[in-house]
Amino acid sequence: MTDRMVPGPSDEYTADAADAALGARIREYRMMRRMSLRALGEAAQASPGFLSQLERGQVNSSIGMLRRIAAALGLTVADLFDQDGAPGPRVVRRADRPMLHTAPGSRKFLISQRPLSHLEVYAGEFDPGASTGDDAYTHGDSQEILLVLSGAVRIELDGRAHDLEAGDSIEYRSSVPHRVVNRHEVPAEILWIISPPTPD
After folding, report:
1. Residue limits of the HTH cro/C1-type domain (predicted)?
2. On the CB side of 190, how many CA atoms lie within 13 Å of its CA?
3. What is the pTM of this model?
């Protein structure tokens, strides 16, 4: 007699439900990326037919295959199993936005959340006189857009100043030295949109 358990009907149902949920999440992530089965298959070294069956919960997959699928989708294997992080509308309340370390008098919040991996969105708040720091900085070489939501700021790009008011925006490469400062007597709020994401 062995210690191996034989799954009963309820265990089989649970496994089937888990396979179906995993497959549905893979399909949702693939659709969100606008990838065809063929494109995902090429990136993950899998046949489109196998992926189609996997998305319908009709076959199982090895961890190695799931790693390749996750990497092709810009995710981790944990993301594929995270039911709370499933694709779809996700509300991030203002009070719950992750805050990043910034210069005194300014606050920077991450708006874009995993598994979104094609762009980064940050909200910035600047008290009167506050800035991103004394020195201009760079990060990677991506397309970056700064949009002023309220108040007014000055953005210095490679030593050249641009004054922006609410509703104004400016586009530049993140590899260009840049610095933001609020030179006014009222707070300012801005939005940064960066694609593709860059290291901080």
Report:
1. 26-80
2. 31
3. 0.64
